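Batch manifest, entry 17 of 40.
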Amino acid sequence: MQYFPIANEDERERHWREQLRAEGFDVVEEYDPSAVIVTIGGDGTILYAARRYPDPTILPVRAGTSKGNRAAFDVEELLGKLTRLEDGRATLTSRSFRTLTACGDGKQLTDEFRALNEISLHHQSPVLAATFAVRIDDVGFSRRFPELIGDAVLVATPFGSTGYFKAITKQTFTDGLGIAFNNIHTPEETPEMIRCSEDATVELELLTTKRSSGAVLTRDDDSAPYELSAEEVVTVRAGDRTVELLDIE
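Output type: C-alpha cells
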C-alpha cells in the first residue's frame, strides 16, 4: 500500500514523510490516486485534501492542538497502526461521502467549486443582512422562498452536519442533504432547517444589494469565497465526486 502524507504544518509534513519512509512504508512524493492520503492535523486538513485531490481516499490522523473530530486516531498511534495493517493484524474500514458542487448558468464556478462540508450564501456586511431567494426541488416536493432577509443559508452534507449546520440547528443527520437558514429576519415563519434527499437541487439567488448587504458563496473553511452579483443564480447539488474516509481497526 502506498501512502501520501500531508499535514497542516510544513515541518510536520516533512517529518512524517521521512519517518514513514525510514520505517519501510511506501511513501510517494506526488499524489497518486491509488495512494492513501494520510492527513495529519485536524478536520481542516481533511477538507483541504477533499478539495485539492479528486476522489481521494483519506486516513485522517489528529496532530498537535487540532481537535480533529473526524480523525480516526492520534498521530502517536500512526506507526503502530500502519505496522499492524501491513502485517495483516489490523483491517481497514471505510465510509464514502459525496461532495457538493455549485454551478452558475449550468457551468462550474471558479476553481471547481466543490465542498465536503457545506456550501453557503453568506452576507458580506457586518451591519446589513442580505436579501436572497431559495428554491428547493426534490423527489416528490418543492419549496420556494421568494424573498428572505437574513445572514445566510447553507446546504450541508452528512459529513458537514457536525459543523456550521449543527451550530445553527443543534442537529446532525446521516443521509441526504440539510438546508439551514441562519438568522432570517423576514419572513419570521421561515423554518430553521429543511431535510431533503441526495437528489435535491437548491437554487440560491442574491436578489439585490440596494439597502442590503452583498453576499458571497463560501465552501467549508476555504478563505477564498466567490462574490455573487445581484440576480445571479447558483445551483447547489450533490456532485459526482466522493471522498472515502478510512480507519484502522
